[in-house]
Amino acid sequence: MFTGIIETVGNIDDIIRNNDDISIVINTDRLDISDLKLGDSIASNGVCLTVSELTPIGFVADLTTETLRRTAYHSYHVGQKLNLEKAMLPTTRLGGHIVSGHVDGIGDIIELKRKSRTVDIWITVPIHLKKFISEKGSICVDGTSLTISAVYQNVLKLTIIPHTLANTTLVNATIDQQVNIEVDMMARYLERLISMNKQEYPKSTNVSMSLLEKHGFVV
Fold this sequence. Notes:
Blueprint: E1 8-18, E2 21-27, E3 41-44, E4 47-55, E5 58-63, H1 65-70, E6 81-86, E7 105-114, E8 119-124, E9 138-141, E10 144-152, E11 155-160, H2 162-167, E12 178-183, H3 185-195, H4 209-214
Antiparallel strand pairs: 1-2, 1-6, 2-5, 3-4, 3-6, 4-5, 7-8, 7-12, 8-11, 9-10, 9-12, 10-11
């Protein structure tokens, strides 16, 4: 689990192609990796990656065809900048919102408006995700926890503050750029609960005391 508060911006040093899947070598820049071990999780542009190998300046992770298909990683190249965040601890301040690192879809930046210190960004998201998006709600874009300032259909507007610009890849955002989108986890589960068909839960379960005794639940 993650918070969407980016710890540093790293980059892809190498891409190793293994038939259909790939391995990527990531330079973690200023990120403290002294406590990392094999199997740990790191959010890289919003995608939860597993550390398969440690290097003096970063780590190696494997990406399956499923990950490449569902995320913007399919278009990444050597030198690509990445927002990096280590998995949260029980003592971590939840400064952003709860992020799983499981990307829900790919968004497209369709408009940018740079102001004196902030940047307004408009992003289209897959149509099936629009029900999870609301004004003043949270969304994760390339691993960054952001607040939605406006919504129209499946287009959302974000206002990026100076601190976020200085500490994430959003400072270099461009029109037509693809970004990884993860909707708010609370919204996802709430929608699932509301939409469940009541027929999935029959009124009678045919559970009796004798049945429980037979299977050892009651002594």
